Amino acid sequence: MIKKIILFFAVLIAIVIGQQPLNVVPYPQQVSIGTCVIPVAPGSILIESNIESATFSVSMDRYTNLFFPFSNESEPSSNESFLLSVTIYSDDETLQLGIDESYSLSIEQGSYQLKATNIYGAMRGLETFKQLIVYNELENSYSIVCVSISDSPRYPWRGFMVDSARHYIPKNMILHMIDSLGFSKFNTLHWHMVDAVAFPVESTTYPDLTKGAFSPSATFSHDDIQEVVAYAKTYGIRVIPEFDIPGHAAAWGIGYPELVATCPDYAANVNNIPLDISNPATFTFIQNLFTEIAPLFIDNYFHTGGDELVTGCWLEDPAIANWMTKMGFSTTDAFQYFENNLDVTMKSINRTKITWNDPIDYGVQLNPETLVQVWSSGSDLQGIVNSGYKALVSFAWYLDKQNPDNNIHYEWQDTWQDFYAADPTNNISTNAENIIGGEATMWAEQINQVNWDVRVWPRAIGIAERLWSAQSVNSVSLALPRIGHFTCDLSRRGIQSGPLFPDYCPMQDDLVFTMKPNTKLSKSEIKLILNK
Amino acid sequence: MIKKIILFFAVLIAIVIGQQPLNVVPYPQQVSIGTCVIPVAPGSILIESNIESATFSVSMDRYTNLFFPFSNESEPSSNESFLLSVTIYSDDETLQLGIDESYSLSIEQGSYQLKATNIYGAMRGLETFKQLIVYNELENSYSIVCVSISDSPRYPWRGFMVDSARHYIPKNMILHMIDSLGFSKFNTLHWHMVDAVAFPVESTTYPDLTKGAFSPSATFSHDDIQEVVAYAKTYGIRVIPEFDIPGHAAAWGIGYPELVATCPDYAANVNNIPLDISNPATFTFIQNLFTEIAPLFIDNYFHTGGDELVTGCWLEDPAIANWMTKMGFSTTDAFQYFENNLDVTMKSINRTKITWNDPIDYGVQLNPETLVQVWSSGSDLQGIVNSGYKALVSFAWYLDKQNPDNNIHYEWQDTWQDFYAADPTNNISTNAENIIGGEATMWAEQINQVNWDVRVWPRAIGIAERLWSAQSVNSVSLALPRIGHFTCDLSRRGIQSGPLFPDYCPMQDDLVFTMKPNTKLSKSEIKLILNK
After folding, report:
1. Residues B378, B248: one domain?
2. Where would I find the H helices in B405-500?
3. Nearest Cα residue in chain A from B495
4. Which pLDDT tens digit goes with each residue over B90-101?
């Protein structure tokens, strides 16, 4: 109780000295607080937009349902209604890297105005507006403070990697994850779809690939993928598939053994098995598969992995070793040959390649347009941006690790502070402009739909804010009360996000955690959303 | 996929060499595997007991509902029914430390026999029986292996501490926690009810105590407590309240300021405020409060905390400092005086005191009957058992810590291995017989009902097995496949327990996590259970 009072005073002091006075996460770029506080009754807030959009309609309906978590318990209101007027200046719904996500929000007595260039900026504004509605438990009432906000993200790529290979993640859980990412203003879902242990993606061209799934019922159909892409679009979240090759390819070989290298000495670790790149049929296979899969996504980027290739397996496979000798290839040459061939496929499917930083570490010259996701270290990142590549930071944001930054806190959840401290430009002295953002990763060796939420939240909030807010927004003590409000709010929305300090979060009596999305899109909605 | 195969072979090898061939957690003392495997159809297993017991009836109904998680999806069975015949030799339902929890289980073609001294041993046997029923996803079928098991726990005190002070834990969530503890054969719920930040326990004698609760709706009534005690009894789980005094007492002072010491220099940390023991009214208050509360519990033990007393606060309070001078008391003397007075109350309410090890560290001579819960270290434990006290191990089992045993794993969940390795007798050379068990602790600074399951499970399974199984059952690699089955099974039962390695756990399509118990007891059932 006294700790609560201390936090309360901390917030009060923050207001007095003008720092982060709003409980909004990620913290907006510009905030100007007014003097009025407007009571709002459940059901009294209506959203009206100046444009017709199937995609944005879903977003408006979603937030209208989220504004008042305890509305079922309230008396019907006789108060007047408030209209949140949304002005969107362009009806262009193109969702690609670099779209304008800015918005402005003005709350005054009698006037709620949200303005944005496009629907995606408006979605960010709706989330901020939702967070401004404060619930008072003792009075069972809601209010909103008068405020003027002007906001836009620091980085255009605010990604989250979901691994649906180490454990199968049902489609509904992936949609549920998207809810949580959208609430936190992440804008990119990096879908690590397949890996050494499992190939859960259905292919019409190569139906035996899903023999590499954990179970016939643990697979993603084309319809599943399209639903995920459409659902993500209702949050302004791009979806980028990863097919991790040439390493981590054992699961490809369950249905198509000829695709993978044979190396008994390495086979005890399933992660050691790469594709057999000596066989031209392998490249035909990749070409055909990606030609089938890529159109299910709308994004210009396509992730081809490239990490942790075990070239020793290639050398142990006589056919591959002979081919390398014949070609006069070192292992680096062979890896280079693979990446060069992959570029041909990327061009034919009209996609820009993303890889992990491993090919570069291995001496491979990547196509200069390749986007490099750095999981190794800040010094590797410095070299990569100096070489002119655009890059994503991931090394600091491994949510699976016990000690992500080698810091030891008392509580495991306090690792959020390490994520928060990891500014993408830390120790980067030159070419920082080549860093276009970053990605949190939740590798799934010890994750399935049951524990994903709690292992990710509230810790990933620190990453979300780092990627969106100004670099100067970096105080743990100022962030803490804001995150406290937000994590409680996430729980009420059905996202399992625990607390970071002793406090009280009133929740709905009938709250259950469903591992399902908050909105069910119909087939016709999916079609409308994808075609716009 | 290949990793799965490796695990499969590991299990096969274990069977061949006779080690832990059953996927049962905690592993039983004696197992003899037969040669037959019996197919069982959903709904076909009936349980029949030779005694009438309201308490055991709840347990039988519960398990009957749990045997077939996918039964709703199955065709009605035309197979024959199987009768699990339960023989209980005594109808004595006394639930106290040291009751006989042994059972034997014999599964043969046409005969399922569970035998136990009392209903609590029979409950352990039902849990083992449940774990023996194996689900085959591809065939959507169930089977059970022929086996003969004779089992009993290594330690009589297998406890779990739940902190409902740092965050309020709704009654339904405490009942849900009891489900998870019962499934894992924990037998003691140590309910850390109040602490510095909150006093959520309603008192009819002192109604202002709940002014120290986070909210008027964040409290436990007498009825709530009795429901918890009755519900725990349906799992053979004892419930022991902790009222942590004389330190950590700030929340007592919200409603009754005269109870607590005043020390401005220490007040910045709410944990620093102890009771004012110079005031005789404090002891009257404790006496009256405990006289009211103790009868709500049926256990002979009562935990009075005693940890982290900040005597500096006493010395800064002029009234207390003057009283100490008058009495000629050092701080140790004052602490001794407090514990001596507490013993008088314990005697009057007919309870045996438990404290944390701090009074002993402080030089206090505790009543020799005091049970000491050691949270500091193994060397302290050695000294305490050498002094003749009975003791509980807790220091190795702090579930809140990032690095519980200062070991760094790659994944946070792998800290289960540290818990598993922590044998209570590690580094104990003498008087190990004074260790009567141990307790996992889940302190709640960063825990509420939303994230408790995932932060506790599957890691606490390692503790459950350490306290139940033979000391020689200590191989991580042999435990892993068993825990893999069990954690999947926990999920299907509604307990959020994640995986420890890449695998596939088929779950019900309609599975939701409710933070509620699997059984709702009626008021008349609660009365019947408590009165037996």
Report:
1. yes
2. 416-421, 452-456, 461-468, 476-492
3. A450
4. 999 999 999 999
The whole-angstrom separation of Cα A426 and Cα B364 is 52
Among residues A365, A452, A378, the alpha carbon closest in space to that of A169 is found at A452
A-chain residues near B454 (CB < 8 A): 450-451, 453-455, 496
Does residue A132 sit in the same domain as residue A199? no
> Do B314 and B378 fall within a single domain?
yes
Cβ atoms of A457 and A487 within 8 Å: the answer is: yes
Complex ipTM > 0.85: yes
pLDDT at A6 over 70: no
Catalytic positions of B, please? 308
Burial class, B332, CB count within 10 angstroms (exposed 0-12 / middle 13-18 / buried 19+): middle
Coil, strand or helix at B10: helix
pTM score = 0.95
Quick one: pLDDT band at residue B21, thresholds 50, 70, 90? confident
Indicate which CATH number applies to the domain containing B86. Answer: 3.30.379.10
Which residues does chain A have within 8 Å of residue B511's beta carbon, measured at their own beta carbons? 515
Residue B453 has pLDDT above 70, yes or no: yes
Residue B231: per-residue pLDDT: 98
Mean pLDDT calculated for residue range A304-332: 98
**% chain A with pLDDT above 70:** 95
**Of B104, B122, B151, which residue constitutes the final position of a domain?**
B151
| Domain count along chain A | 2
**Domain CATH number, residue B417:** 3.20.20.80
Kindly report the length of chain B: 532
Asked if residue B88 and residue B175 are part of one domain, the reply reads no
* Domain, as residue range, for A252: 194-369
- Report whether A198 contacts A166 (CB < 8 A): yes
d(CA A185, CA A128): 10
Look at residue B75 and tell me if it is in a domain. Answer: yes
| Mean pLDDT calculated for residue range A500-526 | 96
In a domain? residue B97: yes
pLDDT (0 to 100) of residue A532: 84
CB pairs < 8 Å spanning A and B: 199
Looking at the fold, whether A283 and A360 belong to one and the same domain comes out as yes
Sign of the dihedral defined by the CA atoms of residues B217, B222, B225, B231, in that order: negative
Is B373 a domain residue? yes
In order of A307, A504, A517, B221, the CA distances from A70 in angstroms are: 47, 16, 19, 24
C-alpha span between A110 and A33 (Å, rounded):
16
What chain A residue is nearest to B169 in terms of C-alpha separation? A504
Contact between chains at A512 and B507 (C-beta distance less than 8 A): no
